[in-house]
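User: Need the bound-state model for pyridoxal-5'-phosphate:
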Amino acid sequence: MPGFELFGTEERSEVNDVLETGILMRYGFDGPRKGIWKAKELEAAVCKVFGCSHAQLVSSGTAALTTAMAALGIGYGDEIILPSFTFVASFEAVISVGAIPVFVDVDDTLTLNPDAVRKAITAKTKCVMPVHMCGSMADLDALQAICKEHNLVLLEDACQSIGGSFKGKMLGTIGDAGTFSFDFVKTITCAEGGVIMSNRDDVFVKSDGYSDHGHDHKGVDRGADLHPFLGYNFRISELHAAVGLAQIQKLSQFLDIQKRNHAALKTILSAVPEISFRRVPDPQGDSCTFLSWFLPTEEATRAVVASLKEQGILGGNFYWYDNNWHYIRKWDHLKQALSLNALSPEHRAAVVLHASKNFSVSDAVMSRCISTAIGLLWTEEQLNDKGNAIVATVRKVLSGK
Ligand SMILES: *Cc1c(COP(=O)(O)O)cnc(C)c1O
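Assistant: Bound-state model below.
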């Protein structure tokens, strides 16, 4: 699953280029850097590999979401519709720009249910943010149609689905903007980093400035730059970008291995008729970082998780329903809006209201779901052992013995 599994000489060599000059900053120092521009090079590679007009690297996926929201003009009082199943970073970014996260149910795609999105639209809705969880995509046709009809912005959180696609277009490049995370456990990593992708010139220019203190990057040097708007520092360093540059060149290799291992594991699990699989709107476009599967009941799912744990083989199988990071059920800090600094009373009330709604429809999906992370280094024997152990455990649980 994560690119760190295949870290090697390529990454070391790219980092060494930067260490040779000692210019760790992505902007300026044109002379001493001797033509080494790793961040610029990685941005060009992102545009080429994923097929978008613009890419702006930043320091994390969270920073990428925050920057994209600012660049799309999302702020005070605006509502963003997002799924109940995501990583906490998605709503952190929403709250940080002063907007209101409006959570809606997921369906058996493990992503936004388009009907639930429709029902959540109000006069304040500004943006729909699908999160392409666990390597696979939301139904972008339906979501694009909703955005068009209601004049809403579509922002794709594709942090977990690098290399996935929908009907021939890469995830993250389909909406008004899209983001990837390159943190340590993502499909390609640069330790910490992220990127905003867009085909809109305005989104790019604003992201470029916002992530670097508002600098317009048009001056002869940094001191001569103008500041047409306020910004922050979400810059990536050259060291991080260098690692990413080596990793992006390995992406097609990662995806080939994932697809092969995913297909083999799915074949093994398919032997049990009670196991069903996540619905994937475009199966061709699944990046296959995870195989997500369902059992008929929460009770059976819990029993399988407990048994895998008891056998010492739960590792790599995720039961998100009980996980503190990825599903709304356990986000108590959000439900109570436990912000260190004061939110406006209005903002706070809206956050608490939307995070504390009834998510029984999502519960019915998530309580029966297990996601198995697909390893890049599995041998055929390890893969078969893993699959067969899951099958044996499920059979045992379902037979009640
Ligand atoms: C990892 C992740 C992020 C944030 O990325 P960081 O680089 O860790 O800040 C955002 N959204 C989702 C869905 C993620 O999985």
